[in-house]
């Protein structure tokens, strides 16, 4: 059974800023009680969109679920609130640390300012942050990925399968991280077929992060690109990307998913046949590995990078229609090896 508790946002005037937390272990007592103090507990603080985004956050949850099953830890999940500030994230991480969770993992670069403030106050607790290497400390593990490398492979595939010689990229929010996806994808397309046009679009600009959470924005952007004859669209937009996937599927064109193998995401089952492949990030294993390192008494810290050479990023092959395209698969495999061998250097900015 799941139990729902609520962590109050200390020092925040409005009760609306409280954080909903789901504890994934079986227990009859509150997660903050002294009876749980000796239990192995860990926590995930989700990024924009929360669990159920069929993408980034769900991949992190899969790592937590694996740790619960294989390591016997009790997992706590903390969802973000709409329009929250860095101060809200500080309160969330503080509450999770005080409850005895170790490690406490911030899912996404948005947690960097909060971890910078909270981690020094809890030196015996490991804080993990995914997709950020800017904030460092002896008890901070920076889990980062070479997204541009996986995106390059997606560009190769897109250039090989397009019939209109027009493909699209949809980024959720125009940040340095998402620009890595765009840069790799565009380079992969152009290196494969320089005559293919790439239409790039971002849904929102910081500090507006709706581009990661509102499917209608992704749907409208995809429709606009379809109207411009794009027949392959790669969306790196979190939950908003599901709207793009819907639009592309209904148009009978190809989607390229992101972060998780979106062909296998239950929430996208109605559109799976349109998902040619997905650029995957091994967020699941990265979360599990961090939790395991703490349980083993050898907590990870510093930069932990996952690239093509360690299968930390890659291109999913779940859709049988993709694997049947032997020339496409061969081109992708060739590009992958050349990146690993250093023959291709993938750009990190468009």
TrEMBL record:
UniProt-listed InterPro entries: BMP_lipoprotein, Peripla_BP_I, PnrA-like
Coiled-coil residue spans: none
Residue ranges annotated for the ABC transporter substrate-binding protein PnrA-like domain, each copy included: 46-346
Keyword Membrane: yes
Topological relation to the membrane, as annotated: Lipid-anchor
Location relative to the cell: Cell membrane
Signal peptide (from-to): 1-23
The protein's name: BMP family ABC transporter substrate-binding protein
Organism: Streptomyces castrisilvae
């Amino acid at each position: 059974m799941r139990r729902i508790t609520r962590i109050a946002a200390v020092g925040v005037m409005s009760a609306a800023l409280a954080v909903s937390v789901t504890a994934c272990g079986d227990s009859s007592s509150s997660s903050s009680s002294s009876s749980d103090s000796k239990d192995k507990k860990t926590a995930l603080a989700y990024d924009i969109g929360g669990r159920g985004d069929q993408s980034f956050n769900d991949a992190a949850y899969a790592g937590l679920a694996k740790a619960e099953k294989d390591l016997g830890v009790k997992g706590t999940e903390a969802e973000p609130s709409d329009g929250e500030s860095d101060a809200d994230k500080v309160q969330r991480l503080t509450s999770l640390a005080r409850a005895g969770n170790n490690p406490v993992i911030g899912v996404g670069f948005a947690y960097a300012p909060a971890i910078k403030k909270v981690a020094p106050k809890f030196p015996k607790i490991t804080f993990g942050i995914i997709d950020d290497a800017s904030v460092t400390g002896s008890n901070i593990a920076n889990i980062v990925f070479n997204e541009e490398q996986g995106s390059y492979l997606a560009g190769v595939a897109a250039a090989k399968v397009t019939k209109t010689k027009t493909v699209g990229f949809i980024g959720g929010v125009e940040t340095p991280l998402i620009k890595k996806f765009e840069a790799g994808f565009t380079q992969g397309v152009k290196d494969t077929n320089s005559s293919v046009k790439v239409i790039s679009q971002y849904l929102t600009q910081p500090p507006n992060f709706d581009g990661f959470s509102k499917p209608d924005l992704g749907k409208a952007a995809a429709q606009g690109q379809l109207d411009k004859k794009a027949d392959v669209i790669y969306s790196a937009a979190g939950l908003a990307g599901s709207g793009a996937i819907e639009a592309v599927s209904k148009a009978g064109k190809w989607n390229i998913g992101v972060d998780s193998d979106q062909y296998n995401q239950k929430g996208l089952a109605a559109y799976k046949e349109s998902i040619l492949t997905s650029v995957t990030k091994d967020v699941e294993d990265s979360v599990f590995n961090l939790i395991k390192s703490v349980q083993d008494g050898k907590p990870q810290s510093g930069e932990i990078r996952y690239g093509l050479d360690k299968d930390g990023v890659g291109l999913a092959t779940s859709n049988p229609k993709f694997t049947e395209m032997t020339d496409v698969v061969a081109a992708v495999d060739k590009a992958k090896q050349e990146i690993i061998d250093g023959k291709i250097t993938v750009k990190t900015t468009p």
